[in-house]
Specification:
- This protein has 332 residues and is α/β, with parallel strands linked by helices.
- It folds into two domains: 3-219, Spore Coat Polysaccharide Biosynthesis Protein SpsA, Chain A; 230-309.
- The chain has ten helices and 14 strands.
- It has helices spanning 13-27, 44-51, 65-74, 97-105, 176-181, 194-203, 230-247, 252-273, 277-304, 316-322, and strands at 3-9, 32-38, 56-60, 81-85, 89-91, 109-118, 121-125, 133-135, 141-143, 146-147, 150-151, 161-163, 171-175, 208-219.
- Strands 1, 2, 3, 4, 5, 6, 7, 12, 13 and 14 form a ten-stranded mixed β-sheet that branches.
- It is globular and about 55 Å long.
Length: 332
C-alpha cells in the first residue's frame, strides 16, 4: 500500500523548519513526503529544496485554501493513501504503521485519524479532532476528548480503534479512490469543516471511518488561522450550515436550520457580552453568506443528500450548556 504524506503550506517556513524533520525521521520509510505549496510569497519552498531534497514539491498556482489547495495538489498523485497533514503537527515514532495496518485489514475503511494531542500541553487532547469527530442533529461538531472548548486529559481512555463520523483535517488519512469517488473536497468552503462534509459523503456509501488510538500526533492548532481571528468564526459557522443543508435529506432540514439561526444568534449575543464584537459580526456575515449560497447548494443537495443517521446526540449544545455534560463519555 503506497502512502503519500501531503503537507499544505502557505508562507509557513518557520513551521516547516520546526516540524518537517520529525515527519521525515518517523515517516519516510513508509511514505513519500510532499509539500503542497499554496503560492507562498516567503522563501519556504526554497528552504525545503535546499534543506530537505528528499521532499517533493507540488506547486499550486494560487492560494485556494485547504480545500482547493489539496484538490489541486492530489490530482496527479498515484499513491493508495493520502495523509493530509497540517504543517503545525509533530508526529511520533511508529505513528503511521498502525494506520496503514488498519486500512490493510479493513476494506471498508476509507478514512482515519490518529489521536491528536495538544503540542502546547501534551497531556491533553487538541481542539481540532482530538480522538475523532461526531456531529449532533443540528450539525454542531464535537469530538471524543473535546466538546466545545473543553478538552480532556489523555489517560488512555481513547486508545482503542473506534468508529467515528469524521476524521480531522489536521491529520486526515483517506483512501485515494474514495476521496475522488466521493467528489473530493468542496472548494467553496475554502477552509474549516470541509473534512466533515467529505466524511459525510463517504459514510453515505456505507464506508467506515476510524480513530486509530495506538497512533498519536501533537498539533499546535490555529497556526494558520487562530481562534481569535473572526475569519475562523465565519468559516466555522457558515460551513457547518452548508454541510447540514448539503447532506441531510428530508424537509426537516429547514426546521433544523431555523433552530440553528436562533442558537447562532445566541452565540452572537454571547460574543457581544465578551466584548468580541467582530466575532458577532462574523456570525451575521456567515449567515448572509449561507443565504447567498442557497441556490447553489440546493443543486448540490440533490446530488449528495443522504438518509443515513449522522448523529448520536440530538443537541450537544443542550447536553453541554444545560445538562453540564462536559466530557465525551458523559454524553452517552
Amino acid at each position: 500500500m503506497k502512502v503519500a504524506i501531503v503537507i499544505l503550506n502557505w508562507n509557513g517556513k518557520s513551521l516547516l523548519e520546526q516540524f518537517l524533520p520529525s515527519i521525515i525521521n518517523y515517516s519516510s520509510n513508509e511514505a513519500a513526503i510532499y509539500i503542497a505549496d499554496n503560492a507562498s510569497t516567503d522563501d519556504s519552498v526554497i528552504f525545503v529544496k535546499n534543506n530537505f531534497p528528499s521532499v517533493h514539491i507540488l506547486q499550486n498556482k494560487e492560494n485556494g485554501g485547504y480545500a482547493k489547495g489539496y484538490n489541486d495538489a492530489l490530482k496527479n498523485l498515484t499513491e493508495d493513501l493520502y495523509v493530509l497533514l497540517n504543517s503545525d503537527v509533530e508526529v511520533t515514532e511508529n505513528w503511521l504503521s498502525p494506520i496503514i495496518k488498519a486500512f490493510q485489514n479493513n476494506p471498508k475503511l476509507v478514512a482515519a485519524q490518529p489521536k491528536i494531542l495538544d503540542y502546547k500541553d501534551k497531556s491533553h487532547f487538541e481542539y481540532a479532532g482530538a480522538a475523532g469527530g461526531f456531529i449532533d442533529k443540528l450539525g454542531y461538531p464535537y469530538c471524543r476528548g473535546r466538546i466545545f472548548n473543553t478538552t480532556e486529559k489523555d489517560t488512555g481512555q481513547f486508545n482503542d480503534n473506534h468508529p467515528i463520523f469524521w476524521a480531522s483535517g489536521a491529520c486526515l488519512i483517506v483512501k485515494s479512490s474514495s476521496f475522488w469517488e466521493s467528489g473530493a473536497l468542496d472548494e467553496t468552503y475554502f477552509t474549516h469543516q470541509e473534512e466533515i462534509d467529505l466524511c459525510w459523503r463517504m459514510k453515505a456509501n456505507g464506508s467506515e471511518i476510524y480513530c486509530i488510538g495506538s497512533s498519536k500526533v501533537y498539533h499546535i492548532g490555529g497556526a494558520t488561522l487562530s481562534a481569535s481571528n473572526p475569519k475562523k468564526t465565519f468559516y466555522n459557522f457558515r460551513n457547518s450550515l452548508l454541510t447540514l443543508l448539503k447532506n441531510h435529506k428530508g424537509s426537516s432540514v429547514w426546521v433544523l436550520l431555523f433552530i440553528r439561526l436562533i442558537l447562532d444568534g445566541i452565540a452572537g449575543v454571547q460574543f457581544i457580552f465578551q466584548g468580541k464584537i467582530k466575532h458577532c459580526l462574523a456570525i451575521i456575515h456567515a449567515h448572509f453568506s449561507f443565504y447567498r449560497l442557497l441556490p447553489f447548494y440546493l443543486k448540490k443537495r440533490k446530488v449528495h443528500a443522504s438518509t443515513i443517521k449522522y448523529y448520536a446526540i440530538k443537541s450537544i449544545v443542550w447536553n453541554y450548556f444545560i445538562l453540564k455534560k462536559r466530557t465525551f463519555n458523559n454524553n452517552y
